[in-house]
Write a structure and sequence with these properties.
By secondary structure, the protein is of the alpha/beta class. The chain has eleven helices and twelve strands. The protein binds nicotinamide-adenine-dinucleotide, 3-isopropylmalic acid (IPM) and magnesium ion. The site of nicotinamide-adenine-dinucleotide has 21 residues, from helix 4.
Length: about 350
């Protein structure tokens, strides 16, 4: 039987709560077809406060030995001065994305049947944001002069390389070819002229190789209007790291809630393990209450299964989620939702 080695990073807050439900569902979906070997890595703000370690080189090497990573969420109490400066987000989450060259951050959005969108008339909501994952303003290229004085100067430089932009744009076009063949570049070329110009030129050049894909462009501010007014206009959105971050929280909200939004940090070359995680964070406001919705983590596990070649297991997970959200009791708990979805997967 095929063996799949999964690195599990529950993380902080609701991260471990939703990840354990996703693991249950994944085990049920792969049962009998795969020998699933799960290795837990204690990482996150809590781990850092206990040990002083955020992510050692040895741990990166150990995680690299796995076929994929399932991550919950990381980030501790925002008021804790020991966690200031996003040290966990940067030193753990972004470090993993960069170390494993997750240059595609894939964030699909679909309005599941029976889920209520806050939009009055959402129409068809079925699009994928292809968010660049290793560049942009996320690279940590910045600094502050005269810090803490009235004359402070703080810089955060967005890094965009032709190599980095081209590979993610190519991925987005290839994805559009498998969908409705419509691609929207989202940027802010009217202000961010250097980075925007590069994205635009590369998108135009790759578009010439895909004459059957309809390509358009929106400034990111206008894109937020259309996401609310007419999300059906979108099929594949390709955008930079920061715009993609912001748009996908909005996308989650219009598709019925951030508790349903899944993502994959993909290394398309397969050199490193890809990492699957909900779009949401550690939700300290509800951690420990047992009310977190594990659906985003479960759908992230479906993306993981699909990425590893188990399309049938992925389909069964998604079908079970669709059935569950259509008849979900309220109120319900994190583990009850996981249990119901496990039962539906097992019955399929
Ligand atoms: N990938 C990640 O690990 C990741 C992603 C985003 C934020 N974060 C971190 O998480 C911490 C909290 O960030 P935030 O408050 O800005 O965003 P968040 O996504 O954690 O929470 C935003 C709101 O959504 C709710 N929410 C989130 N997930 C939910 C779920 N599954 N079910 C029900 N409600 C849910 C929360 O209760 C909160 O009201 C910060 O430290 C942030 O840096 C981590
Ligand atoms: C926690 C943070 C670094 C992260 C990001 O900005 O990418 C998160 O918001 C996300 O969407 O995964
Ligand atoms: Mg985000």
């Amino acid at each position: 039987m095929e063996q799949l080695r999964l690195a599990i990073i529950g993380g902080d807050g609701i991260g471990p709560e939703v990840t354990s439900e996703a693991r249950k569902v994944l085990r049920a979906a792969l049962d009998g077809t795969v020998d699933l070997v799960e290795t837990e890595f204690a990482l996150g703000a809590t781990h850092y406060l206990e040990t002083g370690d955020i992510l050692t080189d040895e741990t990166i090497d150990a995680i690299a030995e796995h076929d994929a990573i399932l991550l919950g969420a990381v980030g501790g109490d925002p008021r804790d001065p020991r966690l200031a400066g996003g040290i966990i987000e940067r030193g753990l989450l972004l470090r993993l994305r960069f170390a494993f060259d997750h240059y595609v951050n894939l964030r699909p959005t679909a309005l599941h049947p029976a889920v209520t969108s806050p939009l009055r008339d959402p129409g068809e909501v079925d699009f994928v944001v292809v968010r660049e994952g290793t560049e942009g303003p996320y690279v940590g290229n910045g600094g502050s002069l005269r810090t803490g004085t009235p004359h402070e100067i703080a810089n955060e430089t967005s890094v965009n390389t032709a190599f980095g932009v081209e590979r993610v744009v190519r991925y987005a076009f290839d994805l559009a070819e498998t969908r409705s063949k419509r691609l929207t570049l989202v940027h802010k070329t009217n202000v961010l002229v250097h980075a925007g110009g590069l994205w635009r030129r590369i998108t135009d050049a790759v578009a010439a190789e895909h004459p059957d894909v309809t390509v358009d462009y929106l400034h990111v501010d206008a894109a937020t209007i259309f996401l609310v007014d007419r999300p059906s206009r979108f099929d594949v959105i390709v955008t930079d790291n920061l715009f993609g971050d912001i748009l996908t929280d909005l996308a989650g909200a219009i598709a019925g809630g951030i508790g349903l939004a899944a993502s994959g940090n993909i290394n398309p070359d397969g050199t490193f393990p890809s990492m699957f995680e909900p779009v949401h964070g550690s939700a300290p406001d509800i951690a420990g209450t047992g009310t977190a919705d594990p659906t985003a983590a479960i759908l992230s596990a479906a993306l993981l299964a699909e990425h590893l070649g188990h399309a049938d297991a992925a389909r069964r997970i998604r079908d079970a989620v669709d059935q569950d959200v259509a008849q979900r009791p309220a109120p319900t708990t994190t583990s009850e939702t996981g249990d119901r979805i496990v039962a539906l997967v097992a019955a399929a």
